[in-house]
Amino acid sequence: MINDKFYSRLQDVVGERNITRTPAILDTYAFQWGYEIESAQRGDEPSRFGQRPDAVVLPTTTEEVQTIVKICNEFKVTFKPFSTGMGPWAGVSEPGAIQIDLRRMNRIVEVDPNNLYVVVEPYVTNSELQAELFQYGLMHHAQGAGPQTSPLASHTSFVGPGFTSPYTGFSGRNLLGAEWVAPNGEILRLGSYEHTGKWFTGDGPGFSLRGVIRGWMGAYGGLGVFTKAAIKLYSYPAPKDWTWNISGTIPKYEWEVPKYWKLIVLNFQEWEQYESAFYEVSDHDVVMMATTSSSEGLAALFTDTKMEAIEVIFGGLLARTRRYFIVLIAAHTEREYNYRVKLIRTIMKKYEGEDLIEEGFISPRSAHYAETIRNMLGGHAFRFSNCFQSTHGGMDTVAMAVKLAQVNQPIKSKYIEKGVIGDDRGEGIWTTTYEGGHMAHLEVPTVYDGASKESCLGYAEYQDECNDVDLKQAYGMPFFIVGDKVHDYYASRTMDYPKYLRRIKAAFDPNGISDSSHYVSAKNKSNE
Amino acid sequence: MTLENYEEMMDGCVRCSKCKFLPQLQIKSKRFSHICPSIEYFNFHAYSGGGRMIMANALQKGRIEFTPEMLDVLYSCTNCGGCEVSCKWVYDLEPNEVIHELRVKAVESGAGPLPKHKKYIELVERYQNPYGEPSEKRPAWIEDDIKLDEDSNTIFFVGCTAAYRREEIALSTAKVLNAGNENFRILGTDEFCCGSPVYRVGDREKAIEIMKSNVELFKSKGVERIITSCSGCFNMLRTEYPRYVETSFEVVHISQLLETMLSDGRLKLTNEVPMKVTYHDPCHLGRMSEPYEPYEGEKVEILSQVYMWDPPKPERLGAGGIYDPPRNVLKQIPGIELIEMERICEYSYCCGAGGGVKAGFPDFALWTATERVQEAEETGAKGIVSVCPFCSTNIRDSLDYRESEMEYFDLTELVLMSLEGGE
Q1: Residue B14 and residue A56: Cβ atoms within 8 Å?
Q2: Do B17 and A84 touch (CB under 8 A)?
Q3: What is the DSSP string of A267-305?
Q4: Whole-number Å distance between alpha carbons of B78 and B82
Q5: Has residue A33 been placed in a domain?
Q6: How many folded domains does chain A comprise?
Q7: Same domain for A296 and A222?
């Protein structure tokens, strides 16, 4: 338990109103989606309740965060920061730790439309930022976690693929600078967010601290506190007089789709055709979205309720869908639009594909276009069961994504037959390409019952098998549910990288108080 | 239902925080992106819809118990239902229902409600209204020229707030009904609180007693149709009563009736009322008034790990509230220009008064109303219009507090101004 002196010191920083140790309030910080898997793996009943923090503080400035971190160092108390705070990595993992809830740090500090970057604080959400950027004709990369989550958290601390990844890349790619309260309490301003804030490179000056603070994967909140992030911006392809105009009543909203936008679902008979077409589409760099799921996933994306999705699945989509990917063409001009549509149709014909929208098997409404750009489509997966997680997550080529999808199908089917995970015939995947090139991401969203120990353990076993395949057949790192054990699992075939992560951790966190449950600890805990 | 019945649902929360914001497609600016006043004011996660659901779950699992601090969190919620609209768009969860059930449990266990709530519940029992006013004063708002039809089977259920605190709304409602030749009577000194303030803070047992007593009263008086000018009363009589007691009367809100009277020509609006106005949707007329359809069924596994309700469960998403009638009436008043705020209809922002908050947490209530008033001011409108005496009180308090140049109007007051020979 934290002592009164420590609590009093924190209270002096944030004020009485912004600190609590009321158990009922603290318990709401002990509950996270994904804990049920971790608890089942420990042999406990699956539960979304995990470790309760001893206190929660709500700072509002970087200086307050710095003082809190220094006090934690002084008293050797572990801390865990979070922004919007969704997922098992958000909560504290050890008894006696405190949670730094950053929701009062919610300012858009600066929009620089000429140099194409924005500086945000932790609790600015994707949808809030997007709404403000549209007035400049700009957009940012929003990670797949959803419109209500924090772009700062993803850009500084996670991989962060999203539905617009073919256009905007992934989160780590878009971090141009950061203000960082290191675990020892030092404030560092990196990249474009150096003290004048007016030059913009994600790296330097000097050696790249972007690699230190996040690398490809991010530290999942285990390496201090990020209080500001400079994020790259992109042109938003819509006419200058276009505004975000949404009408209707829930759940049937209608949206004013920008004039030169079009969704196409390219369906091919075989993986080979799919792969070739996917490569060609990526080569030409003409789409805002290029993504694959299962029949069930496609139905979920472009319907508004679970019942509607079920009706679409069994109304013909299941029988018709083979290997498909969805593209969103979002052009600035009529000429650009016509060229892109013609090109996509040419590629589709070349590989004997068909458009499932044109064929009438799925019918996205205008609101689904809005959900695409607002990065909401991933949330539709929750409509089936309120619960899913992803295995795999490697980032490599389109070819590797295709191969991994094929390799995973029989593995997933085995667990479906056991009745422990959702039945998508093993076909359920999620892929996206990145930045109009050959780079692609594949993860495998998998439905399970969070209230069933059997299902949670079954999912965990399935995840371990997926990790094993990733390692032994070199399909890349999984990007969810990390920590010492998973990092060390991959060490032998990946130049023992955790050894270097631990050096970083030890250098910046000498007292080991920045909760490392989903990063690495300075001392190799998985070997203990 | 009991809290135990909600445990599986509570376990299903993924703590995504969508309950804190408007339905995500409706976010048009950072400034007005939020739906939940409580989390905005208090900031700790426990003060959100999802947070309270986790708190209820923790209590159900024996991890925590009722304490004064926990009750403060539980009761600093206006029960506006905004969290549930945003959540249900994606998830099969009902945070607002859980919050209410937790309040019921607090009362049943002897911990709740808060002392200020207990005080006004006592007043309701003793004086038939939460203000402690004598019954004889209830019809004091009536002026001599109001025509009542004692043979009518339609009553104007005035409600405690309009009768004792916002008499001008009671009066303008009666006048427009007269103007439209709508025959009605009132219950006068016999009218009893609808039970809303008792029900909202979780004293369900007493609230059901009031419902039964009122239903008997309506029967004994031959009431077949009830007109309300109060959104809280409307919500209770139309939406909550049928969940607990058998009812045999129709309930109409004055905004619905005005729309009908205009469309069938009984009311003619001729006087110019040159004003830009914006309209505030009361939660209890909007998303919270959507009826509950009786349902009996079970969850069946239709695909592995995918469950559906059999038979299909009616969805209560917030779309079935009363949104168009007041707007349609406003649009027919000559000279009125309606400018909408960003947060409207099913994703409207609460005025801050409901759920026992005005009594229990007046500072928070005033802060919330001020948020709403600022949003109204940003439209450039000069008038803020609504159709609820309780919203009226809180919004007026904020207008005074801010020394705002905006004026508050009940819809009936504007209609009255526009009537030929009107005021």
Answers
A1: no
A2: yes
A3: EESSHHHHHHHHHHHHHHT--SEEEE--HHHHHHHT-SS
A4: 10
A5: yes
A6: 5
A7: no
A11 and A93 share one domain: yes
CA distances B277 to A319, B110, B350, B352, Å, are 54, 46, 18, 20
Q: Do B58 and A379 touch (CB under 8 A)?
A: no
The CATH 3.40.50 domain(s) of chain B lie at 122-263
Contact B93, B49 (CB under 8 A): no
Residues A121 and A222 in one domain: yes
What are the distances in angstroms from CA B376 to CA B242, B346, B373, B385?
A: 35, 17, 5, 10
Residue after which a domain boundary falls, among A431, A447, A472: A472
Quick check: B20 and A367 CB within 8 A? no
Tell the burial category of A2 from Cβ atoms under 10 Å away from its Cβ (0-12, 13-18, 19+).
Answer: middle
- Among B90, B319, B346, whose Cβ lies nearest the Cβ of A383? B90
Q: Is the pLDDT of residue A256 over 70?
A: yes
CB pair distance less than 8 Å for B307 and A385: yes
How far apart are the CA of A83 and the nearest CA of chain B, in angstroms? 11
- Looking at the predicted structure, is the pLDDT value of residue A394 above 90? no
B122-263 topology per CATH? Rossmann fold (3.40.50)
Report the gap between the CA of A249 and the closest CA in chain B (Å): 6
Please provide residue B212's backbone torsions phi and psi, each rounded to the nearest 5 degrees: -60, -45
Which residue has tokens 């295995």?
Answer: A391
B286: DSSP letter: T
Domain-embedded: residue A141: yes
CA distance A139 to chain B (A): 14
- Taking an 8 Å cut-off on Cβ atoms, the answer to whether B33 and A416 are in contact is no
3-state secondary structure of A470: helix
> pLDDT tens digits for A400-412?
999 999 999 999 9
* End-of-domain residue from the set A101, A133, A153: A101
Q: Are residues A259 and A374 in the same domain?
A: yes
One of 1.10.3470, 3.30.2420, 1.10.3860, 1.10.1060 is the CATH number of B1-112, namely 1.10.1060
Q: For residue A425, what is the domain's CATH number?
A: 3.30.300
Minimum distance, in Å, between the CA of residue A197 and any CA atom of chain B: 23
Do A82 and A168 sit in the same domain of this protein? no
CB within 8 Å of A24: residues ≥ 6 apart: B46, B55, B58, B59, B64, B67, B69, B70, B73
Query: Does pLDDT of B421 surpass 70?
Result: no
Instruction: Give the distance, in angstroms, between the CA of residue A440 and the centroid of all CA atoms in the same chain.
Output: 15
In a domain, A243, yes or no: no
* Residue appearing with tokens 């103007």: B179
Residue A491 has pLDDT above 90, yes or no: no
B92 with A307: Cβ contact below 8 A: no
- At residue B73's C-alpha, the angle toward residues B206 and B210, to 5°, is 10
Q: Looking at chain B, which residues constitute the CATH 1.10.1060 domain(s)?
A: 1-112
User: Rounded to 5 degrees, what angle do the CA atoms B74, A33, A183 make?
Assistant: 90
pLDDT digits (tens, 9 = 90+) for B319-333: 999 999 999 999 999
Site from B10, B33, B305, B361 to mutate, A interface, most A CB atoms within 10 angstroms:
B305
Sheet holding A289-292, edge to edge: A354-355, A261-268, A323-330, A289-292, A430-433, A439-447, A388-397
Q: Which of B73, B323, B345 faces A24 most closely, judged by CB atoms?
A: B73
Whether B91 and A448 lie within 8 Å, measured CB to CB: no
* Residue A435 sits in the same domain as residue A489: no
Same domain, residue pair A199 and A283: no
Asked if the structure places residue A246 within a domain, the reply is no
B126-181 tens-digit pLDDT:
999 999 999 999 999 999 999 999 999 999 999 999 999 999 999 999 999 999 99
A175-181 vs A225-235, strand pairing mode: antiparallel
Nearest partner of B282 among B230, B236, B341, B320, judged by Cα:
B230
Residues A451 and A506 grouped into a single domain: no
Calpha distance A353→A350 (Å, rounded): 8
Q: Which domain holds residue A276?
A: 253-379
